[in-house]
Amino acid sequence: MNVRASSISGRKDDPRVLRTPGILLLLTCAFVPMMDTFIAGVALPGIRSDFAIEQGSALLSLVMVGYLAGFGSLLIVGGRVGDRFGRRRILWVSMAGFLVTSSICGWAPSFEALVGGRILQGATAGFVMPQVLGLVTAHAGPRRERAISWYSSMSGISALIGLIGGSALLDLVGGSSAWRWLFLINIPVGIIALALLPRMVPDTEPNGEQYVDGRGGALLSLTVLSFLLTMSLSTILGPLTIVLAVVTVGIGSAWLWQQRRCADAGKPAVVPQGMFDNPDLRWALALMLPFFAGAGGFLYALPQTLQEGLGYSLLVSGLLTAPMALGFLVSSFAVPRIRARFGVRAIALGASVQGLGLAGMAVGVSAASPPLMCVTMLLIGTGQGITLGAMNAHMLSLVPAELAGMGGGVLLTAQQVSIATGAAVLGTVFGAIVQSSGHRTAMATVLAVQVLLAAVVIAASLRSAGRSDSRR
Fold this sequence. Notes:
By secondary structure, this protein is mostly helical. It has helices at residues 3-6, 20-50, 62-73, 75-85, 87-106, 111-139, 144-152, 154-173, 181-184, 186-200, 214-237, 240-265, 279-309, 314-342, 345-367, 370-398, 404-437, 439-470. 53% of the residues are buried.
């Protein structure tokens, strides 16, 4: 972010200061891409049926994995592009791209076209999110703290509306192709946003001196996409998976070479040099990966289990998942107080609550008990909200101050890639067990793996807490 944009005085009558309607407009721009992560899970059973995909096929995971790959791999580059050319301008262009790619998904004539549209949709989302946060940070003035708090709550709100609203919309529209409306609904919201952005949101001044490593960004994106395709298609490609894995290693090696080349030339690389010099930060990042991988597998398997395995209607399935989103939203606001009392151990507390909910959910699914599932979903969401909030605060506290903005982008990228990896790997496991033993057994297996991953997070966070105590 350039200095002039970040030094706005904050006077309420200053035309460069965002007013509340402008902040809400920016949050709407962030809300739609966030919601599309959750709403796609609701659409999976309809997509599978409409394109005659076999139950349990790993192909279905590409609907989520493709979006998350495009989303996560371009967040860092998106931030730099916004600095270089002006954040409002890039936000307008990327929102327009998001609408076009949403149309591609909604009208996709084939499954291959849908997956391609989802990758492109995720790529445009990767440019939207950094601009929203950058504009709020630069222009909210005296409303900045409140605006960032609202931004932080968007994950819970988007999950709540995506899961319940998406299910309700599908139930209302009906028919085998109703899932298409989950993507087409983005269009009217986006058109309104495009019309209002130039009027309600000030722009940051372009910084012509900002260097954008386009080659490094492209190589990173291709590495992530190739890696996730390898994970998703391993059971389908068979021996050819080795070829794709070799290609992934080759592209990844080229990206690392580009990182070193930028460092030698004194130019900013995609991932800044020195970002992970702190061993505590590397450990904290490793702690984060199993948490998000488990969440990715859970989001992929749950809608299919509720709708196809247990036979619940779309609306009932959405209502059963609502307690998770509600628990996440409420607990997120309690994180500062919990961290003040428990410190790094707040991560272990959240993972413990989540693990208890996951174990109970396995019983609820096996017994097909909606009341038990509602209670356990509330525990899962509450634990996730505490864990995520405490984890993000802990990791960002370890990032060097001069890299704080870029550090947030790197960590968010790692989160999205971890979710996609979980959806790919656990989605493959889930599909294989569905074909052999049915949805209930497959979901119980995913939950059991997630309980083990929660245990890893608990152990790692307690270790981090012990290291912090020993340095005092």
